[in-house]
Amino acid sequence: MSRAVRKAVIPVAGFGTRVLPATKVIPKELLPVYDRPALQYVVDEAIAAGIEHFIFITGRNKGAIEDYFDHAFELEAALAQKNKTALLDTLDALRPEAGACSFVRQQAPKGLGHAIWCARDLVGDDPFAVMLPDMIMDGAKPCLKGMVDAYADTGGNMVSVEAVPHEDVSKYGVIEPGEDKGVLLEMTGMVEKPPVDQAPSNLMLSGRYILEPQIMDLLGAQAPGAGGEIQLTDSMVTLLKSRPFHAYKFDGLTYDTGSPQGYLEAFAAMALKADEAASTALLSGLLNGERRV
Fold it and tell me: Cα–Cα distance between 249 and 263 in angstroms, integer?
């Protein structure tokens, strides 16, 4: 019987260069997507999946992320004084329990694989999730929850996948699929950003993983790969030779908030989801050159 997945590693050390200058002083993970930071959607997804310990891999100038998950005493005192209890309740509901968050400095931008390896002592001997904070995943069933449920039956390792146009496969890591098991696919391999004519499928790795702790030893010995960085994909390919891997076919939409277009799409989608009538009216007015006062 597989051990439950209770820890999630969330790498938040990146510079956010694709959305400069907005991210010059604000961490990209804290850019608002409608009424809350992008990172909050990822944490909410983790909570829905039963995650109890959040391990954030941070870097210099990312202290605001730690502050976000802490009490804001002056703000909360001012809200209490003005009897704004609804706002206080909202802040309380969004804040994880004391001790649920750990923060580890990556210290140097050596790639996603290196960032995950920095969490090795906190992960220990437990299976763990990896959640890329750029990706907001919206579906009837939260993506990581679906993966955790499937993992309880299969064990091993798991990645989320999503179909993309075949001409775009060179932008992503893609899997080599094996037997189709419904919501899951067996995996026989994976390739990072393959040429279009060499791609084994059009199923991209969409930013959610469940990994066995053995990956940490492989990452620690992993040579730099694409871009001169320690690539998580390279160590997963090695682990796949000895341990089972499955791909979870996420039934929903993924928004890449790390790009301007993806950020705009995520903002519009989350606004519509929160208040479809008001957001539709506003967007329609903006498209028609109208202003709301």
Answer: 23
